[in-house]
Amino acid sequence: MTATEPVLQIEDLRVVFSERGVGKRPDVVAVDGVSMSIEAGEIVGLVGESGSGKTTLALATALLGRITDGRIWLAGESIVGISRSRMRRLRSLIQVVFQDPHGSLDPRQTVRKGLSELRSLHPDRTDWVTDVDLLGKVGLIEDLLDHLPHELSGGQAQRVSIARALLLRPSLLVADEPTSALDVSVQAQILNLLLQLRESEQIAVLLISHDLSVVRNLCDRVYVMKDGRVVEAGITEDLLASPSHPYTRELIAAIPGKDWDRSTLGVASGQSAGEVTR
Amino acid sequence: MLGRMLTGAVSADRTTKGFAARNSSLWVMGLPLVLLGLIVLAAPLLPLADPGLQDLRGRLIPPIFLEGGTWEHPLGTDQLGRDLLARIIYGGRLTFVIAIAAVLVGSVFGTLLGMIAGYRRGWVDTVIARIVDAQLALPFILLAIAIIVSRGRSLAVLVAVLAIISWAQYARVIRAEALSLRERPFILGLRAAGASSMRIILRHIFPNVGGTVLVLATLEVGTMILAESALSFLGLGVVSPDISWGGMLAGGREFIQDAWWVVAFPGIAITFVVLSINLLGDALRARYDPRKRTYL
Predict the structure, then answer these.
(1) Residue A161's closest CA among B147, B282, B192?
(2) Which residues in chain B come in under a pLDDT of 70?
(3) How many domains in chain B?
(4) Residue of B130, B181, B188 to mutate when probing chain A, most A C-beta within 10 A
């Protein structure tokens, strides 16, 4: 991959859910012609209300969901018509972190077993980090390795999910509302962790959120989605300072306490995300 | 007991108290079955009469608590003078073996197909789901008669028939669980990491539907005993001299007016076992119910 290629580029992506048979409901166009590109090491926000197609788009970009139409390039390589094994390799370039931290881990598998299973999925690779180093990257101690998911706190489980995602050294992390199931202090820690990882791992992040203040503090660029379409996109500061689409203005108006202060989130306030949590 | 059942019913939640109560109820419900299983297994060691020994002069002797009963035949004898107690205990062996074998075969096939259908979706799902619907729509007696008449009567055929009757139940329930599991983040995460469908189904879906399979299988043992009894009663089941409870019912029904005990005791045995199994299954379900599922 050359430095100039975007890690992910999608063009004119459409996702349509349709039913078959008698008495079917009308088709639902969840994603309607979205184009987007993400450069290496960039944090890109994707905002919109519930049902605007954010998650469907996220799953499609991670090649986990249905794609009705459109083109996708991963690291400059089109995914149309490639072999299965190549697809599996390419797919690991994008990893996902989900909203529900406990749902992201198999309830019957310890942290250690889960990590070694991921390694066993890619027998041809040898560039593995050890479990301890990996947990260190997300600010966890190795004592947690033999814990089952229900023995972890929400914040710990989310860090483990991020660690699992990092193990495969993806170039893009799709984070679908990674903090909305966590309490506020833990939210700030996880967001700080994402910022740190961008620095230490040169990883790009697609951050999906309904919370514009989170996006403002974290993201370089932002896409605003409504009804399956991107209605506005641009550099975060510019877009929030002078929104051109009425929907964006609505979203901005809906933020409580509009006097943003980066320190209120704990982001960039010197609090360390790598701080060990028990 | 009553108090425990009441609290169990009221606090249908995941409190620690509920957990302890559920565990103790498992033991209470399981004990009669364990005892019965031990008796049936140890049958050759017990001081029982030969279950096949006929004594035409001692036909239809009443059980011990009726006039004319003797300790020699505590539950009386049947129309050929065979000891009923011995026949019930020996009959239990075959009944259990058939029921458990049928449940094993049915649950393995049903669970596997259900997981594949639910996880793969698409045309695979459509095909399996339609077969399940068709299977559940067929009256089982009719199907059993057709198969047994064409394939002949044998233990293997009987087990196969019972398994065919039951697999669709597992397939339907497990398909529904797999459908919901496949959208869970941890499954999506594994797919993103490059895990194959086979691995996800066997290593991740199966362990997470295991509790449900266990509950279903337990309940199905009771159903299988009833089905086997019904088939044997119709003369489609176990072949004499092998003994099963259903066969005993069928053999004794002509004498029900003069010697009710010949049918009553096998009937009571079936009722008792099926009831115990259903209670055990309910206790297991309380523990593994997906709606009350805790993380262990």
Answers:
(1) B192
(2) 1-23, 289-296
(3) 1
(4) B188
